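User: structure tokens for Glycosyltransferase family 4 protein, please.
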Amino acid sequence: MGRPLTVLVDAGPWLPVPPQGYGGIEAVLATLVPELRRLGVRVVLATVGASSLEVDEQVTTFSEPRFAEIAAPYNRVMGVAAAHVDAVLRELRGRDDIDIVHSHLEAWGLVGYADAGIPVLHTLHWDLAKHPELYGRFDGRGRVFVNGVSAAQLAGAPPALRRHALGHVHLATPLAERPGPDVAVDDHLVVLARLTPGKGQDVAARLAHRTGRRVVLAGPVGPHHTAAELADALATDPRARDHPDVAWFCDRVAPLLDGDRVRWVGALRGVERDRLVASASAQLCPLRWEEPGGTGIVESLALGTPVVGYARGCLPELLDEPGTGLLVARDDEDTLAGLLAAGADRTLDRDACRAAARRRFTPAGMARGYRDLYDDVLARTAPPATGAA
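Assistant: Done. Predicted tokens:
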């Protein structure tokens, strides 16, 4: 019997796996890796030392996560991703048991392993308009292939990148049990996402004041996971506002917080997060960007909470079943305000949300999708068979 397929999963240098609080890609990997191992895949995880996910082997590139630096000026942060990839490449050169690299590191993961002599699958988790010079002329040299996290994301990819795409695999989340019977559905709306302009929390806050609905914002502001952390940084670090998300939050969101109509509760996790989402009338998504994967959307559906927002990015694709969502044309704040004021979100079907999550967004289904992509990459990169003399 041959050895099992061995995949080096590159989680990047920014956050541990699983993440402590917010961490979109890292949360996806914390869900994916155990399911891959159940399928018989041997997983070597390239990550930071704080990671605690059970894997077959861990390659540690930094002892501590580097997320606090991710939005620093380029000349201060450019070496972090490069050093991480260099450490992984050194590991690969010293061994011959890795069959494929599965990279989740933005930009660097696409090009860093192209000449490593090993097949690569690079998952695109982000907006594909971000790096036109890279994506517009990319050449994987027959070794590097990509996948998207939604069909809508890949549809907007530059042709050069799309030629390397093998399809998409929707994100998944463990199907959380609904919190206990003491968690009743309330009238509040929740926005479950990192606080950043693309997620539109300032629009959500404005809608709360326009419509009389209560909105709870849950997620980090830059590297700060709580209001106390952010207040301390602003009081002691003169560079705290250099982070673009911090500056935007202070200028556009904080003035709309009143502790009642609009609250920011920081980055929640586990049962606390699930109780907030499960008790919400809906998740509100007034997006300013083309959402590629929608982890928070899938988490919301799994908890039986429908989604209301703008029809941007992957949202129409994830909410294409009756009763699971209510979408209006992008940036049509007036129509969205009218629906919220009328309580249209209360008519959506919470059982349909759970059923859709069980059918379409399970961890096991995501793992099978990636296992098939690994086989596809290996078939495309296999040396040509030679005939007998």
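User: Anything notable?

Assistant: The longest strand covers residues 42-48.
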